[in-house]
Write a structure and sequence with these properties.
The complex is a heterotrimer.
Chain A (H helix, E strand, L loop, with lengths): L1 E11 L4 E12 L4 E5 L6 H8 L7 E6 L2 E2 L5 H11 E4 L11 H12 L3 H15 L14 H14 L4 E5 L7 H16 L3 E5 L3 H6 L2 E6 L2 E5 L11
Parallel strand pairs in A: 3-8, 3-9, 6-7, 7-8
Antiparallel strand pairs in A: 1-2, 1-4, 4-5, 9-10
Helix pairs in contact in A: 3-4, 3-5, 4-5, 5-6
Chain B lengths: L2 H10 L1 H33 L9 E8 L9 H14 L4 E7 L5 E2 L3 E4 L5 H4 L1 E9 L3 H5 L3 E4 L16 E4 H8 L9 E2 L2 E7 L5 E2 L10 E4 L9 E7 L4 H15 L3 E8 H8 L1 H35 L1 H9 L4 H37 L8 H26 L11
Parallel strand pairs in B: 3-10, 5-11, 7-9
Antiparallel strand pairs in B: 1-12, 1-13, 2-12, 4-5, 6-9, 7-11, 8-9
Chain C lengths: L1 H16 L1 H28 L11 E5 L16 E2 H8 L6 E13 L7 E8 L2 H5 L4 E4 L10 E4 L1 H8 L8 E4 L2 E9 L23 E4 H6 L9 E2 L11 H4 L2 E9 L3 H20 L10 E4 L3 H5 L4 H31 L1 H9 L4 H37 L11 H29 L1 H6 L1
Parallel strand pairs in C: 4-9, 6-8
Antiparallel strand pairs in C: 1-11, 1-12, 2-11, 3-4, 3-7, 3-11, 5-8, 6-9, 7-8, 10-11
Classes of the chains: A alpha/beta, B alpha+beta, C alpha+beta.
Bound molecules: adenosine-5'-triphosphate and magnesium ion.
Adenosine-5'-triphosphate binds next to strand 2 and helix 1 of chain A.
Subcellular location (chain C): Cell membrane
Main location (chain C): membrane
Membrane topology (chain C): Multi-pass membrane protein
Chain lengths: 232, 400, 432
């Protein structure tokens, strides 16, 4: 469902040019759970952002469901993000003035869903992450693990086809991290494609596929999961 | 973004919101009342006076020697001056009067029907002692009786006839039909003319009670007035000559001022005009301050919430949506402030009415002023909102 | 001290880092203070006591001794000549003077062009009662008619070009007078002795003439004057002295409560006697109004300044809100710095000292701005409401008050945000 061909990204500042990604070719299929690993500064987040259309790229092409995202207007990109892609961030990024419920509702509102539909989806998402009782709390009143679960609920409430997670457990202790991982696996089993950046080899191992990136270049490997699909 | 969510956010930022609301409310209250005052002044200036404001010129003057201020020399002076004025090309008519019209207070008298003093007595009726052409200068309509053609004498045995304005005659005789010849304390009624605005009384309503007698004034120790009406368009040319013509007739005079009646009227409402102007300036400042505050609040909001805006963008909010969301936050605030403001305006209106005369609020002014407020706030929020749309959605992934 | 200079430097640095919000804060505070100050100037001057310590000892008596049938009415605003004579028969007051205002034309010789002059026709106690400073010469020896005038300093300069003109003669409305005194610079603000005719906001008179002379020469009153019978108001010398021509202001000085009480008694018995004699048809209603209440009594306070005072006060409040809002924003964006400082071990009092430095700087800037805007505001108000222009001067009290106001406002504007930034949010910040 995702195809990157010869994709490059260069960050230009006044002083230097950083080649964050060089000629990346990548194919991700429906239903995969892929882990993205690599040293710090290697371009993991950059890749994830480009996949999520949060950032533009300099050359190459990016096909999502067979359609190029190049040249789409801001409104079209926003709609695409809203409908097909879910995000989970390392620092949760909940909106702190909004209650848990309101946070989850936000992308659904952007999509223009009816109130009843929104309510039903939010309940479902909250049920899944097990925070139904805390729906009226403010983010600051929750623990980190709980906040991240809310973020996951927000990401999946819109029933995205693909979930992008940038070090979702980076700020959590191991127990919390395990809970989050289990949740992601559960979501993956329901058919959602997941691409996750992680530094944790254990987590990487649990993913179906491992993509390694070093200095902006891709080293795809499947060493931990022989059953995973091989791709170019 | 839904209204309830906006309100929730505002409630969360209590202090900032309250500050903004209080300020918006007070601004609106001030804006409303100064518009009201300006409107009132405008109305006062446009109220019918029964006078030809542009074509009538008055000269307020006083002889500088005691001899010239006493009869018979005074009589001679008045006649010489009138003759000279009549000879100025463009002058239609000229007359003297003991006092000008459209003044704050002045020479007045109580007036009553001698047959019915108790009921008819009216205190403080402006009393004019004039030359026969006075009525020609003012261009008033004669409604009853005949205007006196010759000057009488106030000190003589027979009192000169009294000319009344319509509303004064109405008040004195309460609708009786033939009033010409009726005896008043000042003399017999000789004519009734159309109304004109003479004196503005302290604290009284605007009434057009005036009585005139065709006779030289008792005394000119407070100066007297020369009035003239010019042909349309000739006023400026005539005015330019007045000083030199009058000086030529008699150098021993002090000319206090030369004004058209329009200027005289402006002078009469000078205070209201000044206050309205001051309030308008103050309101402009106030709007400026409100704009600065809306700007800074929105700008700061954007700076502070880069991350949040980034997250919203990542979740699928388009640039347009972010822009509208920020503007609508200002709008909701302004509207709430406006509602509070109308309340404040009512209170301020009542407080102001204790010290100055001010009409009560009407229903459409609050709408207009709220719109002005909304417009200013929108203008001020525009730039920060535009900045907000430039926040990259990638911001969301950057850690704090 | 050195430490404090360091704090000032830190304040300046943080201003430099974000000059726009700071400039806006100062601007708003200056506008608020300036506008308020401009109006406060008029309000303060108009309501100031021109004779502190004495204004409660000078009284303005009024009676209804007039052929005037009415119920429930206030006495006329002025007294007739005969009223004054009856009141002056009492020796209870320490000083007393009847007076009115008139106008004339002065010149040195008959062939010179005339100079218009405001004339106060009055009696000798006037100068002592209202503490009028005399530069040269003396006041009249008694209250009889004299062909002697006292000139204001500016009138002496205008006519003679110098002030030492005692003994010189001048022509006032074609009659010769000799100058027996010249006043020093004198401007009683507000000129409360003239309040009954609503003239207390105008400048002082140029020439002072004895009351009897004014009556003898038929100097007509040019402010309040009312007849209650058929007296010819032009014949002051004759009918004006006996008839019910009310135009005289009359002031008495009653230093003690006992004197005041006695005088009230005196007025009461006078009114009763007059009533018995049929010269007081209305119910007795004597008034003895102290000078510091005279404007209120006549209800002639100019409402516009009061109205404007209310409005500018509101404006100041708004500006304060606004400025503190701006300052809050500024501080919140500097919050990181604050937290850092606290982490580096700055204690409460050190942070407070820092705040004090901030307040001082803010005061200085906003004071400068306020003075500028205040000056512009006063000029504008002089142009738009010219009748109050005499009351637009700044004195030490006013300036001090402004400095204090600027200090308080700066403090208020700085206090809340910095408290919030320095104490409130550490916890919250870690949570975010
Ligand atoms: N907005 C930007 N401007 C300039 N350079 C950038 C920007 N974002 C990222 N970079 C550079 O691009 C390179 C890749 O950054 P990226 O954030 O993708 O690394 P990463 O693999 O996510 O690292 P980490 O594991 O530490 O999160 C780095 O060298 C970084 O400095
Ligand atoms: Mg990263």
């Amino acid at each position: 469902m995702i195809t990157l061909t010869n994709l490059s990204k260069i960050f230009r500042t006044e002083l230097i040019e950083t080649h964050a990604l060089r000629d990346v070719n990548l194919q991700i299929n429906e239903g995969e759970f892929a882990a993205l690993t690599g040293p710090s500064g290697s371009g993991k987040s950059t890749l994830l952002n480009i996949l999520g259309t949060l950032e533009s790229f300099d050359s190459g092409d990016y096909l999502l469901d067979g359609k190029s995202v190049k040249g789409l207007s801001d409104a079209a990109l926003s709609q695409l993000r809203n409908e097909k892609i879910g995000f989970i961030f390392q620092s949760f990024n909940l909106i702190k003035d909004f209650s848990i419920y309101d946070n989850i509702e936000l992308p659904l509102r952007y999509r223009g869903l009816k109130a009843a539909e929104r309510k039903q989806r939010i309940e479902q998402a909250l049920e899944l992450v097990g925070l139904h009782a805390r729906r009226d709390y403010l983010p600051a009143q929750l623990s980190g693990g709980q906040q991240q679960r809310v973020a996951i609920a927000r990401a999946i409430a819109g029933r995205p086809r693909i979930l992008l997670a940038d070090e979702p457990t980076g700020n959590l202790d191991s127990l919390m991290a395990r809970q989050v991982m289990e949740l992601l696996e559960q979501i993956n089993q329901q058919g959602c494609t997941i691409l996750m950046v992680t530094h944790d080899p254990d987590q990487a191992r649990r993913a179906g596929r491992n993509i390694q990136i070093i200095d902006g270049q891709l080293h795809d490997s499947t060493m931990y999961e022989p059953l995973a699909t091989q791709s170019a | 973004m839904s209204l309830s969510l906006l309100l929730k956010v505002m409630l969360n930022r209590k202090v900032v919101t309250i500050l903004l609301l209080v300020q918006l409310a007070i601004t609106l209250a001030l804006l409303l009342n100064s518009v009201l005052l300006a409107q009132q002044t405008h109305q006062q200036l446009n109220r019918p006076t029964g006078l030809e404001l542009e074509e009538t010129v008055l000269v307020q003057l006083k002889p500088t020697t005691p001899q010239l201020r006493t009869y018979p020399l005074l009589e001679d002076l008045l006649q010489r001056q009138l003759r000279a004025l009549r000879n100025i090309p463009g002058v239609v008519a000229s007359a003297y009067s003991n006092q000008p019209m459209l003044t704050q207070g002045g020479n007045n008298n109580n007036l009553y029907d001698v047959d019915n003093e108790e009921r008819s007595n009216i205190p403080g009726v402006p009393t004019y002692f004039v030359s026969p052409d006075f009525f020609k200068v003012l261009n008033v309509d004669v409604l009853q009786g005949e205007l006196p053609q010759h000057s009488g004498f106030l000190d003589s045995e027979t009192q000169p006839g009294v000319v009344l304005t319509e509303s004064l005659a109405e008040q004195l005789f309460q609708g009786q039909s033939s009033i010409v010849g009726r005896q008043l304390n000042l003399g017999p009624v000789s004519a009734v003319i159309s109304d004109f605005y003479g004196q503005r009384m302290h604290g009284a309503d605007e009434v057009m009670y005036n009585s005139m007698q065709v006779a030289p004034p008792y005394s000119v120790d407070w100066g007297y007035t020369l009035l003239l009406r010019t042909e349309p368009g000739q006023t400026t040319a005539v005015r330019e000559q007045l000083t030199s013509v009058l000086q030529q007739v008699e150098p021993n005079i002090e000319i206090y001022y030369i004004r058209s009646l329009a200027e005289q009227q402006h002078q009469l409402y000078r205070n209201e005009y000044g206050l309205a102007a001051l309030l308008t300036i103050l309101t402009a400042l106030m709007l400026l301050v409100t704009m600065v505050s809306s700007y800074s609040s929105a700008h700061f909001h954007v700076l502070k919430r880069h991350q949040e805006i980034g997250v919203k963008r990542a979740l699928g909010a388009s640039k347009r949506l972010i822009f509208i969301e920020l503007l609508s936050e200002s709008w909701v605030c302004t509207l709430v402030g406006a509602v509070l403001g109308i309340g404040c305006a009512l209170i301020l209106n009542q407080a102001l009415a204790q010290v100055i005369s001010l009409p009560p609020l009407n229903w459409w002014l609050p709408l207009i002023t709220s719109a002005i407020l909304l417009f200013s706030v929108t203008l001020a929020t525009w730039y920060p909102a535009a900045i907000a749309t430039r926040v990259s959605p990638a911001t969301a992934t950057k850690a704090l | 001290m050195e430490q404090f200079i360091y704090y000032l430097k830190v304040s300046l640095l943080s201003i430099k880092r974000a000059p726009l919000p700071y400039a806006l804060t100062v601007f708003i505070l200056s506008v608020g203070l300036g506008v308020f100050f401009a109006n406060a100037t008029f309000y303060y001057q108009l309501n100031s006591d021109p004779l502190p310590g004495k204004s409660d000892k000078l009284f303005f008596p009024m009676t209804l001794i007039a052929p005037y049938q009415c119920n429930d009415c206030r006495p006329p605003r002025a007294l007739s000549y005969s009223n004054v004579q009856k009141l002056a028969a009492s020796d209870i007051p320490s000083a007393q003077a009847a007076m009115y205002s008139s106008a004339g034309y002065a010149r040195l010789t008959i062939d010179q062009p005339p100079t218009p002059a405001r004339v106060r026709v009055t009696q000798r106690d006037f100068f002592q009662m209202f503490e009028v400073p005399l530069l040269h010469g003396s006041v009249w020896a008694d209250d009889n008619a004299h062909n002697q005038v006292i000139l204001s300093r500016s009138m002496a300069l205008k006519l003679f070009g110098r002030t030492g003109v005692v003994g010189e003669s001048l022509v006032l409305d074609d009659r010769n007078f000799s100058v027996i005194g010249v006043l020093d610079e004198w401007q009683m603000l507000p000129r409360l002795y003239d309040a009954n005719g609503r003239n207390h906001l105008s400048p002082t008179e140029d020439i002072f003439l004895p009351l009897e002379t004014g009556y003898d020469l038929n100097y007509l009153s040019n402010s309040y004057s009312q007849t209650y019978d058929d007296t010819d108001y032009r014949q002051l010398a004759t009918e004006g002295r006996s008839g019910a021509l009310h135009q005289l202001q009359y002031w008495v000085q009653l230093d003690t409560a006992a004197q005041q009480h006695d005088y009230q008694q005196y007025m009461q018995s006078l009114a009763e006697d007059e009533k018995a004699a049929g010269r007081h048809p209305a119910p007795i209603n004597n008034q003895l109004v102290p000078m510091n209440e005279i404007v209120d009594y006549f209800g002639d306070d100019p409402g516009d300044i009061k109205a404007f005072a209310l409005v500018t006060l509101l404006f100041l409040v708004v500006c304060l809100f606004n400025a503190s809002h701006l300052a809050l924003n500024r501080y919140l964006s500097n919050q990181y710095e604050f937290s850092l400082r606290r982490a580096l071990g700055a204690n409460r009092s050190q942070l407070q000292l820092q705040m004090l430095a901030d307040v001082l700087l803010m005061t200085v800037f906003s004071l400068l701005g306020a003075l500028l805007i205040g000056y512009a505001g006063v000029s504008l108000m002089n142009a738009l409401l010219p009748q109050n222009s005499l009351f637009s001067t700044w004195d030490l009290t006013l300036i001090t008050a402004l400095i204090l106001a600027a200090l308080v406002c700066s403090y208020l504007v700085t206090l809340y945000p910095s408290l919030r930034a320095s104490f409130g949010s550490l916890n919250q910040q870690l949570k975010e």
